[in-house]
Amino acid sequence: MAQKHGQKKSGMKPLGHKHDDHEYIVARQERYIKAWESGTPEEIMEFMDPQELNYSNHGMEKEGLSHSDVKYLFAKNRTYLYDLDMKTETLHGHKHFTAWEWTVTCKAAFGPNGEALKKEEATPTMMKGCTLMWWNDNDKIIRNHEYAQTKIV
Asked: How far is Cα 60 from Cα 75, in angstroms, rounded to an integer?
């Protein structure tokens, strides 16, 4: 069941020690998730520093991508997904660094041989992952390391 924006995701509660920045990083992360769920690469890219970004998605074997490379990757990948739903499992850190464990469910708009699929034909997929994010003073991501596993559900 998808949660509405504005509701705190269950994984946003601190475990153990609560850092002084916890409420701040929760609010920022909720905005970041909303940008992803919007489906607009421009909204996602608002969170990325245009000069300093170094982005790696190890599950996709993409390392050290620049701002323009990431924008292209997001535009390409985000348009191939139906019913994207992001759920936070845990979120830890402070203003300048966060470790975000998440679960994403979606349907791919293409089949195993690259054929286009209608939403009704697409197979549900689940990804579980962790993203390490380094943030600057302007709330822009300057370094991102993403690790994920995908499985058909």
From this structure: 15
Residue 65 reports pLDDT greater than 60: yes
Six-digit token pair at 134?
A: 């380094």
Q: Which residue pairs, CB below 8 angstroms and at least 24 apart, start in 119-125? A: 119/82, 119/83, 122/82, 123/152, 124/152, 124/153, 125/150, 125/151, 125/152, 125/153
pTM: predicted TM-score of the whole model, two decimal places: 0.82
- CA angle, 43 as apex, 42 and 46 as ends, to 5°? 85
Residues 37, 82: contact at Cβ < 8 Å? no
End-to-end CA distance of the chain: 15
What is the tens place of the pLDDT at every residue in 114-142? 888 998 999 899 999 999 999 999 999 99
